[in-house]
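anyone seen this seq b4? input:
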Amino acid sequence: DSMIVENSVGTGIVAGKKTGTATSYTAYLYQVAPVFTLSGTSTVKTASTDTAASTLDATFTVQVKAVGGDVTIAKNDAFIGKRIRNNDTTTATTDAVSTTYDKPSGITEDVDGNYVISQDTTVTFTVKTRIATNGTITAAPDYYDLRISEVDWTTADIDNGVTTYTLSDFKSDKAYLP
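predicted toks r here
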């Protein structure tokens, strides 16, 4: 009986009583993987003028810790930003969203210039996302927020690790864009 199991209120379940079924999305357990922590978010809305579109900018401060071995984050397109209309995650889209980030301090690069986080090291990425209402948002005027919906990463054994749980967790404040 090598499993430690708790019920929904945190009470331990005794030996011999650990049976049952569960249904879930596919879950993966890695010996080497990143751990992502959102340590801050700022949101700035700029109103439109005669010569410029309305914009919504969100800056996410994301700590990434390499657990169990080295983790690599691509220098481009590893963090995927999405816009959400009026809290409806079914409308999540990357359309009209620009996402950028720079190399964190204290990090090395591989031969392709990607960012290598050494085992047991934590680095901080500043991820910037933006949408503008200069004709690229085809939906009606509404409240929008920006989110980090995915982070792509690799290790020595995993060529295409993807963390997608952040869609609900890593989000900016909402703002009305006309």
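The chain has a mean pLDDT of 84. The CA atoms of residues 35 and 66 lie 7 Å apart. kinda curious what u guys think
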